[in-house]
Amino acid sequence: MGIAVPGASSPGEFWRLLNTGQPQFSEPSGNYRLDSFWSADPDAEDRTYVRVSGFLSGLLPHPRLAAEMADGLFTRQDSEAIWLRHCLLQAGEGVTARAGDRGRCVIGGTGLTSQGLDEAIVIEHAAHQISARLRNGTAADTERLRSLLRDHFGHTGLCPAQLLPSQVVCAAVSGVAPGGCAVTVVDAACSSSLYAIDLGARYLLDGDCEIAYCGGMSGITPRFSTALAKLGGLTRRARLRVFDRRTDGTLFSEAAAVVALKTLIRALEDNDRVLGVLAGFGASSAGRGRSVCGVSPAGQSLCIERAQRAAGLDASQVDWVIAHGTGTVAGDAAELAALAATAPSRGRLCASNKPITGHTGWSAGAVSVIHALLALSHGRIPAHHGFSVPPPGSPIGTRIEVPVQSRPWIRRDGQPRTVGVSAIGFGGTYGHLLIREYIPRRAAPPKTPPPDPVVLVAWAAQPPPFDDIRLPLHLAAMVVAEYGELWAPVRDTTGVIATLTGPVPLAVGNLMRCYAAELERLFTGADATALAAFLADVRDEHPPTSRDTLPGIMPNIMAARLAHVYDLHGLTMLVDSGPTSAHTALDVAGRYLTDGELDMALVLAVNVTEGGWMLALTRSSVARRHGWQARGGWRETTARSL
Prior knowledge:
This protein has 642 residues and is an alpha/beta fold. It has 3 domains: 2-110 and 163-436, Thiolase/Chalcone synthase (Peroxisomal Thiolase, Chain A, domain 1, 3-Layer(aba) Sandwich); 115-157 and 506-545, no CATH class; 454-504 and 555-641, Thiolase/Chalcone synthase (Peroxisomal Thiolase, Chain A, domain 1). It is built from 22 helices and 19 strands. The chain has an 11-stranded mixed β-sheet with strand order 1-5-4-2-3-16-15-17-18-14-19, with helices on both faces. Strands 6-13-12-7-8-10 form a 6-stranded mixed β-sheet. Strand 17 (600-607) and strand 18 (611-619) form a beta hairpin. The protein is globular and about 80 Å long.
């Protein structure tokens, strides 16, 4: 395991932090000019009301990475790649790799939380648009403006394409994992890294690799902070409270976390230290509700029940749960309701690490997994910090206990100690992973399901022109118009696996609005006049940041919205592997169908300049059971090669 969170550069430091309970929040300190993006007035246009977050300013890089940085292989602008590589190098220490081993790297991430990507887009877009508004503007003017902007933001020669999540992960993993190491980025919002761990486990069990490095990376950007503030989801204090009467919002943090996975049989053969055994994973979507941004106790209960069923365990065999615990009023209330509803008769012990490290975003699930592994290693359950009085009507004190002091973690009835890890993604994407203590015993080989080919039962395609925001729903409506709502009998086990190529136009316009004050500081004379004309056009074409902005610019919402509209309760996620992303989406859908996690997968691919398509896939047996015509199919091996 490897970790980088505010205040901790290693698992050992993270363990000390979990036990001291010292919150790790501060102002940006060099990351960006806060006064260009902040206002005390929560209604100020395109400004956040939050001054503090969790920053990795004190990260002590892994020795190999420190040497690489000294040699200029990584620079300050490669922040997410640096955090992730640091964690990958830590996680790889002591892990045996044999000649011929194949590696996989599955990382939860998004371009939405990358300050480097945001600034690179601002540089390119502003340079072109300001130049175009200069009298007799030339290519030389564009280059002059680009150079000025790069000097200001510190991005020397980096273009946006080099800072996309898949490229960042490829740079971070280069030379660390064996066998060329195929890379997949998973975006299920704040459930991403938990989904990444599950997908990596499936790659291992399917025999596609011998070592899988899985986790997440997440940053802090002025635009993301602004969008969250307009949702009212951030606390106005410099302190984060979870499950407490004083709960009033969350604080996000920069972070990365990675775990190295092997099959148990292979780990034992290699004499690797086994930190824990992944016992079972459950995923779900909230389905239909009042809002795609809402929280659903039923959706979270479903994923907990699925994890227990996958592990062959009941609630009484789970000792405690590391909750998502964001510190928002609605989020905490819904999560506590779900944890109480699925608790055993004795109640459930629950805690969260976010009062200390903040909400680590797309890496949150992996951070909590490392929290769980450290507790297993030390045989102690750390206290939940910052808690004093539960909210009115809370199940705390009846069905839920929050540990306010550290306690020994005692094995009950000779059974392996077991912990659940929860994650909740914006848009209603839920995940729950059960981890068990390793007690030496003969490892059983994985079960091989009988052949049941994946088949195509419906499809739709749409070339340009189109409204990129509504294209996924338009494609689904086309499927319904031609084939009917095929997924109706299997709503609970229908999932959406999507991929998106290209920036959403709304996101670029919103980004320029947020950076307007920063740009206005830079230019004088004719450049300032041209900038003013450009920003006037931006403000005319794009509304101020509002409650609707974040759902409109988050890529994973594309998949979550389909689950919301059609009341689907299977997993939803976005996958990104660069130019092969559509093939990866088909491959991932095939795995979850073949393994029985899903009975139908809606595979969605959108290119904002070229159009999109949707395929409805299922297993042959499911198609026969419901009388669906197989309009095309492929053998399992063929589906996975796509």
